[in-house]
Amino acid sequence: SLYPANASLAPMAGHKGYGFGLWCEILSGALPGGHMTWDVGSWMFDPTDTPSYHNAGFIVMDTKVIAEQDDYAQRMNKLIDEIHAVETAEGVAKVLLPGEREWANVSKSQETGIDLPADVRVKLTETLALVSEVPTWLA
After folding, report:
1. Tens-digit pLDDT profile for residues 74-103
2. Tens of pLDDT along 30-78?
3. Which residues, other chains included, contact 16 with Cβ-Cβ below 8 Å and sequence gap of 6+?
4. Which helix (H) or strand (E) segment is 21 a member of?
5. CA-to-CA dists, residue 120 to 43, 109, 111, 115, angstroms
6. Separation of CA 71 from chain center
7. Do 45 and 52 touch, CB atoms closer than 8 A?
8. pTM score, two decimals?
9. What is the pLDDT of residue 138?
C-alpha cells in the first residue's frame, strides 16, 4: 500500500483483483444489507463485547449442469497440480490451497487427539451435562 495507515493491502491481480474485491463487497456487504468492509469491526483488535458486523455471501452452483464431471475433475486436478508446482519463496515448501493445512490437522487430530485447555474441557463438560451426555473422550 502507498498509504499503510489507511490500507493494509493493495488489490491483487490488477483490474481483475479489483473486480473480484468489488464483487465480494457487493455480495457480502451491499446485497445482504450489512456493513461494508471499512465499517466491519476487527475480531482480533476490537473489544470482544463489541459487535463486528461481519456478513457473508454465498454462491451455490450445480457443477453437473455446467460441466461434464470427469472433465471437470481432470481440469481441477490439473489446476491443483499447477498451483502446487509454483515456485515458492525461500523457506516455503509449497503453495497450499485453502483448507489443505486444516485437512492435514484433521488427520493429525484423528491420530493423536486434540489437546484442549483445562477451561475448555470444564466448559464442554458443563455444557454436555445439560444434555446428560458426556463423551468418554472428555471424561
Report:
1. 999 999 999 999 999 889 899 999 999 999
2. 998 888 888 888 878 888 888 888 888 888 999 999 999 999 999 999 9
3. none
4. helix 14-25
5. 20, 17, 21, 10
6. 27
7. no
8. 0.54
9. 61
At 32, the amino acid letter reads: P
Distance separating the N- and C-terminal Cα atoms of the chain: 51
Helix (H) or strand (E) holding 25: helix 14-25
Cell numbers standing for residue 8: 493494509
Give phi and psi for 84, each to the nearest 5.
-65, -25
Helix then strand count (H, E) for the chain reads 5, 0
User: What nine digits make up the cell of 34?
Assistant: 450489512
Q: What residue spans define the domains of the chain?
A: 1-59
